């Protein structure tokens, strides 16, 4: 069969809804200045879907730095990959500051987080090595594992007892193959908001010979006393062997980094294919990241305001009887029961009649008859935003329970 004919018959689990969903539920356009109030299809909505935790996207110092850096350097400099012709002192300065902040010997700057994580896994583990990973790991981790030709064992999400059983298997196999073991988990799981049990995982190092790689995309800048991340929150940052953070969340930018000891970081510098064969991060983004990191470190009030909004929103929703799962982070999932068509009707009601814009997640991303409304609080949301949202959610929950959103197929828009 021709490949294009196969595509025509099967557009994929999400693509099958493209005709009805495109431009509204999928690929929606939020327009105007980045903030809590933006335009959606010409109308102002209260937005809870932007990974702008500390509100840095439109911070005046950030905007000024971005503008001046773009004017001075343009978006092309430096040309080429870091290894060949894309190295600058500013890239090195950012790496040094990141390493110091997250308490590691060295850090390596990455042009994109997703590609970076895929390439970290590809570089660090060989055919003889075994990977043990959490079942709810992000897609970038799963895609990295697809490149791994050795054994990989999965453990149920945050199930430490099952993790230990897999480590027992991995330890025996590694001894036979003269291989090593890498455990991979996340600091903050971006969909559910709960935390990887880093403290309990680290304790297992006393019994099993493994290294720990942590994807802390949602924890970097938001978790811990100083914002270092989830490792700081649990008091085990120094026990994380390879630490990964991204600029796309708390720093509201583009790019990422990996930090470890000097030996491992240098190994990654010379072996990560996603960096060796890709253009260096443009200078304005590097200088912008330096400013964002400066504000993250020097203005704890941003993180304090974020958590003030997080606590008000999550406590308020729980008081109204909403199920937020086990979130311990700013990520705020609201779990409801209903079909995909009910979910689309509810989302339209929220957007069109309550002026609330948040992301909806439904089957096949979550189990059948589960609807997930995912909210991302930020430091620039207000208590009035929280009040408006809680009232709106209470209204649509009553309608959902009463059957007002029941439909045979998803809404066409």
| Side-by-side strand order of the widest sheet | 4-10-9-8-7-5-6
Count of DSSP-assigned helices: 15
Given helix and strand content, the structural type is: alpha/beta
What is the chain-wise order of helices and strands? Answer: HHEEEHHEHEHEHEHEHEEHHHHEHEEEH
In which range does the helix fraction lie?
A: 40-55%
Query: Which CATH C-level class of the largest domain is it?
Result: Alpha Beta
CATH H level of the largest domain: which superfamily?
Type I PLP-dependent aspartate aminotransferase-like (Major domain)
Q: Which overall shape is indicated by the principal axes computed on the Cα atoms?
A: globular
Average pLDDT confidence is 95
SS strand fraction: 15-25%
The name of the CATH architecture of the largest domain is: 3-Layer(aba) Sandwich
Radius of gyration: 22 Å
Q: Biggest sheet, open or closed, and with what strands and sense?
A: 7 strands, mixed
Task: Tell me how many strands there are.
Answer: 14
CATH topology call of the largest domain: Aspartate Aminotransferase, domain 2
Integer tally of domains: 2
């Amino acid at each position: 069969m021709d490949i294009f004919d196969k595509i025509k018959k099967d557009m994929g689990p999400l693509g099958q809804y493209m005709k009805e969903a495109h431009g509204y539920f999928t690929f929606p356009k939020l327009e105007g200045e980045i903030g809590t109030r933006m335009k959606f299809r010409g109308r102002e909505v209260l937005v809870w879907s932007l990974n702008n935790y500390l509100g840095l996207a439109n911070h005046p110092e950030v905007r000024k730095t971005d503008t001046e850096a773009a004017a001075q350097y343009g978006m092309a400099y430096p040309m080429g990959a870091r290894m060949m012709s894309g190295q600058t002192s500013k890239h090195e300065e950012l790496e040094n500051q990141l390493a110091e902040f997250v308490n590691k010997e060295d850090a390596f700057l990455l042009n994109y987080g997703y590609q970076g994580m895929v390439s970290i896994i590809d570089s660090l583990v060989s055919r003889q090595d075994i990977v043990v990973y959490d079942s709810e790991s992000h897609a970038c981790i799963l895609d990295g594992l697809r490149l791994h030709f050795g054994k990989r064992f999965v453990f149920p999400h945050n199930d430490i007892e099952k993790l230990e059983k897999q480590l027992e298997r991995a330890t025996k196999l590694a001894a036979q193959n003269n291989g090593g073991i890498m455990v991979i988990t996340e600091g903050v799981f971006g969909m559910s908001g709960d935390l990887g049990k880093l403290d309990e995982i680290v304790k297992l190092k006393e019994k099993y010979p493994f290294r720990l790689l942590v994807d802390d995309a949602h924890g970097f800048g938001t978790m811990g006393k100083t914002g270092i991340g989830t490792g700081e929150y649990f008091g085990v940052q120094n026990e994380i062997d390879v630490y990964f953070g991204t600029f796309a969340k708390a720093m509201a930018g583009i790019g990422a980094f990996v930090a470890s000891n000097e030996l491992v970081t240098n190994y990654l510098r010379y072996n990560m294919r996603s960096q060796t064969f890709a253009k260096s991060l443009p200078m304005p983004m590097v200088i912008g990241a330096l400013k964002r990191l400066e504000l993250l470190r020097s203005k704890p009030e941003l993180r304090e305001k974020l958590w003030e909004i997080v606590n008000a929103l999550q406590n308020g929703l729980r008081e109204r009887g909403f199920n937020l799962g086990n979130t311990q982070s700013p990520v705020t999932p609201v779990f409801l029961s209903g079909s995909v068509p009910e979910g689309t009707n509810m989302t339209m009601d929220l957007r069109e009649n309550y002026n609330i814009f948040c992301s909806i997640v439904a089957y096949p991303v979550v189990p059948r008859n589960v609807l997930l409304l995912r909210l991302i609080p930020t430091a620039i949301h207000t208590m009035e935003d929280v009040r408006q949202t809680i009232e709106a959610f209470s209204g649509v929950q009553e309608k959902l329970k009463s059957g007002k959103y029941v439909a045979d197929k998803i809404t066409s828009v």
